[in-house]
Amino acid sequence: MGMATCIISSATAFERVLNTPRPVFLLFVSEHCPACAQAGAVFEQHAWQHPWVVSLVLDCAHTPRHPDVSGTPTLLIYRKGALVEQHKGLGPLEEQEQYVKDIFSRYDLSKGASALASLDAPPLQPRSNASLHVPGDRPPPAGGQAGSSPNLPGFDNPRSSPP
Q1: In angstroms, what is the C-alpha Rg of the chain?
Q2: CATH topology for 2-120?
Q3: Maximum CA extent, the chain
Q4: Domain locations in the chain as residue ranges
Q5: Per-residue pLDDT of the chain (163 residues; tens, 9 = 90+)
Q6: Which residues have a Cβ under 8 Å from the Cβ of 89 and sit 6 or more positions away?
Q7: Pick from 52, 51, 58, 41: which is nearest to 97 by CA?
Q8: Which of 67, 78, 126, 155 might form a disulfide with 24, Cβ 3.0–4.6 angstroms?
Q9: Which ranges does the record mark as transmembrane (predicted)?
């Protein structure tokens, strides 16, 4: 699939994206986040090189709140619908390129099945959280498009209807 920037507007749409046997990489960003511009560029570069990974860049202002995202940038990796890795920040700017390359290489199907055999190994931890936004320092939703079902934990837009 390569990389796409999209809007996931409901819990149902989120589940639909995760319903694939391929790894799913979700990079949560904010337009007001200085670190997100660099992280997004590095992520997109590697996403295009790994078409067997479903890679999405999600703007937090247009996407329902996710309980595992407390700051931006945050990378969540799913395998068969289950969260297998969580990266809050992608490390210092000078190390992001290698950090993201290492993450994508663990899911590199062109190198055979051995790349996926390490999924049970603990994920790499980001080297620095210095570039994260403070939780709650998120800009207000744009045009009321953020949020999903108010009945589900983590989704807080009262204008949304349940999935």
Answers
A1: 15
A2: Glutaredoxin (3.40.30)
A3: 46
A4: 2-120
A5: 444 456 677 778 888 888 888 999 999 999 889 899 999 999 999 999 998 899 999 988 888 888 899 999 999 999 989 999 999 999 898 999 999 999 999 988 776 544 444 444 444 444 444 444 444 445 445 544 444 444 444 445 555 445 5
A6: 35, 39, 71, 73, 74, 126, 128, 129, 130, 131, 132
A7: 41
A8: 78
A9: none
| The pairing of beta strand 24-29 with beta strand 2-6 | unpaired
